[in-house]
Amino acid sequence: MAARSVDPVTQYARDVLDGKVVAGRLVRLACERHLRDLETGEERGLFFDAQAACHAIEFFRFLRHSKGEWAGAVIELEPWQMFRIGSVFGWMRENPDTGEVVRRFRIAYNEVARKNGKSTESAGIGLYMLDADGEPGAEVYSAATKRDQARIVWDEAARMVQRSPALRKRINVLRGRGNMHVLDTHSKFEPLGADVDGMDGLNVHAAIIDELHAHRTREVWDVLDTATGARKQPLIWAITTAGFDQTGICYEVRTYAAEVLEGRIEDDTFFAYIATIDEEDDPFDEAVWIKANPNLGVSVKLDDMRRLAKRAKAMPAALNNFLTKRLNVWTQQETRWISMDLWDENKGDVPAKEFEQHLRGAVCYGGLDLGSVNDLAAWVMVFPGGGEELSVIARFWCPEERLYDTTNRYRAQYQAWAREGWLQTTSGRAIDYSFIKAQILRDAESYQLVDLNIDRLFQAHQLAGELMEEGLTVVGMGQGFLSMAAPMKELERRLLHGKIRHGGNPVLRWMAGNVAVKQDPAGNLKPDKATSQGKIDGIVALVMALDRAMRHEKPQRSVYEDRGVLAF
Fold it and tell me: Looking at residues 204-214, what average pLDDT do you find?
């Protein structure tokens, strides 16, 4: 009796789990999910239609490459691509109330490293949803934060239509207007950007979101997600590489995707495929590169990977980019300064919330960064211990309205920190500096506060004067290379030697991961608020406080060398 043929989706899943295809943990979980659902999905009204899966896969045979070494050649999907496309279009579900059969998955999150053919594949998905999905009046969009970015996928799809005799007969392309349409079904495919009018009133059948990690806000995602409600079997097809912003919409969706794959969340409408190296993998081991680059040896060239790996080894500034773009590992940012592993190693044995009592009466030095009047301000004290050790107490304030401001993409974090006591609020839209002043005065009574640095912003001038009137020694400190380089270098050194004890304050940890730095020709560093991924005021205040501690470790200097407050 002849063996029954296996569909390409199931075949790939088996090959991965049998070890015939090298894949990372999360891809293996996606394959396990497929095989498990083949056995148990019927209990939840799910079934796999291999014919529907192959219909979508075979559609790509109508398409041709438009660029590079394969320009003009018919697109031939690799097994990993067939698995994803076949899964999304092959899995079905039955509505228990109506008995109607529709596609199971409404959202597909796909994360792979660069050069693995994401835009080409996405263009093909858009064309399939436009012309081959049987949806009357289909509205298909390639979406991005800017319309020019959204046109990358749309333009690729337009070139595919022009190169395909079969599609040219059915699909009209109006390049100047950014419109493709099928007259017979009154369907259209257009690029869509948040920077132009037209995000409201959509009736989305399919949304292709390329490079979701580049979205700094959740605006586009939310608009498209809510605009699919009137469709019978809509699809959001999101594809991205890893990124640097772990507070944005992409990482939020990615975290959800991982939880679905790991079985911690059950969501039969959500498909996830995340190709990345595993935590224990050596990023410079060529054998693991295929985990993040399933197209290695096809569109991803081994010699190019070797070149980039060699550069990442020799130039630390290139390491994060190699990890993120080529191995699909989420990092904090391109110009990241402090390793989170190193920061966590300096937590110490005493939790931050116990520092108040533990350090009462101890000598300390302060740093105050008022930041923005309508966002965060930070007050940090450092307490010298034995053997160059420094314990750190950090306090943070923000206006209460900032916790609920829809333009604040960190508002959920702010709210959690406020509930847990890590973030203090003052009423209104702007920080009331009198609360900060009162806290500093209380701290001066509880500890032996020798002196403090304060930034030379105009809003700091009045507060500095009031603190001096209360008898505190306040020093104005600049934020340039001249002022910041020495304490920045010293903070690096003490972190590397395990001499900082921060207790795990979560706000300070977040800021430590956000810090980007600028470097002058001499190699001096200073924090760069403009390019940092999020707020860094606490780390700036920590550097300022360390500056005061360093000065008191040296031979006594003339007070006139330090009293920068006189030059505000």
Answer: 93
- Domain membership flag for residue 331: no
Report phi then psi at 373, rounded to 5: -65, -25
d(CA 103, CA 88) in angstroms, rounded, equals 8
pLDDT of residue 560: 32
Expressed as residue numbers, the domain containing 191 is 8-274
Please report whether residue 362 resides in a domain.
yes
264 and 315 part of one domain: no
Q: Rounded to the nearest 10 degrees, what angle do helices 79-90 and 8-17 cross at?
A: 120
Q: Do 318 and 364 have their domain in common?
A: no
Beta strand residue intervals within 211-279, DSSP E: 235-240, 270-274
CA distance 113 to 329: 9
Is residue 565 predicted with pLDDT exceeding 50?
no
> Do 476 and 559 lie in a common domain?
yes
> HEC profile for 100-134?
CEEECCCEEEEECCCCCCHHHHHHHHHHHHHHCCC
Q: Beta strand pairing status for 101-103 and 91-94? A: antiparallel
413 occurs within a structural domain? yes
Question: What is the structure's pLDDT at 562?
Answer: 40
Q: Is 35 helix (H, G, I), strand (E, B) or coil?
A: helix
CA distance 13 to 30: 8
Q: Kindly report, residue by residue over 218-257, the tens digit of the pLDDT.
A: 888 998 999 998 899 999 999 999 987 888 899 999 999 9
Radius of gyration of the chain (CA): 28
- The upper half-sphere exposure of residue 93, i.e. CA atoms within 13 Å in the direction of its Cβ, equals 21
pTM beyond 0.90: the answer is no
| Alpha carbon of residue 206 to chain centroid | 24
224 with 354, same domain: the answer is no
Determine how β-strand 500-501 pairs with β-strand 390-399: parallel
Is residue 249 located within the same domain as residue 321?
no
Q: Provide the residue type at 183 as one letter.
A: L
Query: Torsion-angle region of residue 503: left (phi > 0), alpha (psi -120 to 50) or beta?
Result: left
| Rounded-to-integer distance, Cα 563 and Cα 495, Å | 28
- Spell out the alpha helix ranges (H) of 41-190: 50-59, 79-90, 118-131, 147-163, 165-168
Asked if residue 466 lies in contact with residue 556, where contact means CB atoms within 8 angstroms, the answer is no
| Number of domains comprising the chain | 3
- Domain-located, residue 286: no
